[in-house]
Amino acid sequence: MRRDRVESSGRNQQTDGAFMFGSDEESGTQVPTQAQSVVEGSSTVLVSEYKPIPDIDYLQELLAIQQQGPRSIGFFGTRNMGFMHQQLIEILSYAMVITKNHIFTSGASGTNAAVIRGALRAEKPELLTVILPQSLKKQPPESQELLSKVQNLIEKPQYDHLPLIEASRLCNMDIISKVQQVICFAFHDSKLLMETCQEAKNLRKIVTLFYLD
Q: Cα–Cα 20 to 30 A to 159, which of 28, 60, 89, 173?
């Protein structure tokens, strides 16, 4: 009789367990994998059907660029940054040039100036191209002194009549058209830089964005 009660109790527990939790087939749910938990969040219960990544062309392009070695990189960024940030950008620019990447940037103070200084330190002038939003004479005196050391300097005197922000927007688009990858240093409210990064993404460029705030 005791054995009957134990076996009966075991059967009841199994039945209750099946009722409370059910099986994957009965409930129609699946336990998410670790990767799905990271991507979709740990609260996800229902796991949708596997769908292929729609933008596979972009991934193939990314892999191709990485396998090709040195590439053209456009540097953008705010003028307003501290000395420490400028030093870090200068080191990054230097490292990019000595590894034979071609750097494109503009001629403003802050980020651009740090990029130019770092690239010049690498002593490979052919791997630095600076594109100005307007003519050289429209640049501040302190910028002109640094720009005088750049071998590949492109001026845009045809934009001298435009407001600087409009000329800068056109200049940024020109730089994007010449590079494979974009590196940008900005604040969340840097409107022009955010637009530049979005345009680069739209053109399937690799975009690395560093927020300073």
A: 89
